[in-house]
Each structure stands twice: as C-alpha cells, then as structure tokens.
C-alpha cells in the first residue's frame, strides 16, 4: 500500500488546459460515435487497439440524450438537439414489448431486459418529452417506469432482470436507477415512482459500512469497486434525497463524497478502485469516475451548500482535460476520453467509451454554470 500511496499522492497538477475546447471536442467525438453506429444510437466505444467502433449501446445512448439537449442550449448548435431527438426515437423503436431496455449492445447475443439499462434510458425519454412534448417519449418513459416498479421486490431491491453480462445480480449502484425513477415521479406526477426510488435507497443504506462504504457496488469486484460505480451509487443517493426532500440521504451522499475526495491524487485523478477503507486499490485512474465525482461535488455545492468539493471537482476536470488527445490522426481517439489512464489500465483497456465522454461533458457544463 505504501507504493500505491506514493503513486497517487506524489504528482502535481497538469498544465493549463482549455475547458471549452475540450468540451467541444468531446461533443464532436460523440457525433462520430453516433454516426459510426449508423442507426440513431451511439456506438458503445472505440477500440483503439483494433481501430474499430462497437455496436450501438441502448443504455448509454439513453443518458447521452439529456447531455446533447443541454449542450445544444449551451452552444447554440441545433444539430445536438436534432441528434438527441433521433436517439430518443431510436430508443422508442427498440424498446422491448414489456417496457424494458435490452442488455448490452445491439450486436449482443442475448436480447433480454435489464434493470440498470432501463433506468438509464428513462433519463433520455424524460429529457426528450420535456424538450419536445412528443407523446411518444412520454409513453416510452411511463412504460419503462412501470416495468421497473413491477420488477422491484418489496424491500426495494431489484433482484430480477440483472444484466447477463455482469458478475453480480444485486447491486447498490442501482440507486442510479432509483434516481431515474424519482425524476420520473416528479416530472410525470406519479408518486409510485418516487416511492419506489426511496425504497431502493433505503435498502442501499443497509449495505453501508460505518465509514460510508457500500457493499455490492461493483461490476466484478465488490471488495474493490470502481470509482465509476461508487459515483453511480453516490449520485443516486444524492439526487433521490433532493427529489424526495430527504436530508438524511443528502447527508449520507455528502459523507461518501468527502471520503472519495481524500483519495484524490495531487494531479487531480482518483484511483480507479477503492477498498473498504476508501484507500487506493489500483494504480490506474478510471477516467469516467473522475468526471462523475466532479459532477457530484458540484451538485453538493449548488444543491446542498456543501462547497468542500469544488476544488476537488476542478482538479478532476483539469486532469481529464490534460489527458484528452485533441490532435490524434485517429478520429476514434481525437476528442474522446479513455476508459483508464494510462490507457492500458484495468477498466475498458485501450477503449474510448461513450459514457466517459458524456460524463466529461456534464462535468464541464456544471463547472461553467458555477463560474
């Protein structure tokens, strides 16, 4: 562990970077990812080693939709609005008959509904309904939310319809699904959805250690969860707390976010995995997790008057900007965000996932709103 400590705390901040340029480059990369899929959805990732794009990914296309609507407003570029609507229409076209959203990419061998993916696309349909008032998107959102409520067990856990491509079937990071349901409850004026969201967070908190660390919170290794899934869980708890007016949920999310901040490296990166003592458990950094935690620290500052993390957020964003390649000849790399840094790290090795670019954009947009 001493070696890891030296690795994570012995570096200085990266050189000056241009956030606006980085934001635009990430947006343009996501356009290329959508065009590469060719059907309205967004390619899951670009594999830099094989130099090829993956199939369209319903889950993450779903939550890219609100990011594109937001960027359209911030940039004044109507193309992003139009692309967001196209993504939402594609999601409605492929929604399963029971209301759920399929696991994996469109070329996955199994076509089965899964809880987490349905929750993430719910964000997209809600945003599309809000911006267009097209009844089709409201209908898709209602069907998805109804399916999620029906699939939930009485104690708030989702035990059925786990992804066949994940190792564990019960996950505390499903609070990210609860967040989507809580948002649906508020925007569609349906109390059942908010109640289901609160039940899930209440269950998740039964999995919490005294220091705020959560059990069952990783895709593969629950003893050393990714900062990516840690951030999913924290954000879900925080946002459900805000929507349900639960100061307890917000306080717990803040305590967890404080704990993660203590692991931040001198250059602004977070270790890719953290153990149950909130200690670095990987030498590489999960780039998506860096951006997600920056979002959480900004949300705590603006919504809960907890400004402790603003410096940590700025440093995490600055780190991600510093590793973004804006001049690569390979257009699958230029402007994208790698899964890990270094790129050979343990998460999405040598790949550029669309969700890394999405959360990177969200973090910069929040930073710009705060300044």
From TrEMBL:
Alphabetical list of InterPro entries matching this protein: 6-hairpin_glycosidase_sf (IPR008928)
SUPFAM superfamilies cross-referenced by the UniProt entry: Six-hairpin glycosidases
UniProt cross-references to Gene3D superfamilies, sorted A to Z: 1.50.10.20
UniProt name for this protein: Squalene cyclase C-terminal domain-containing protein
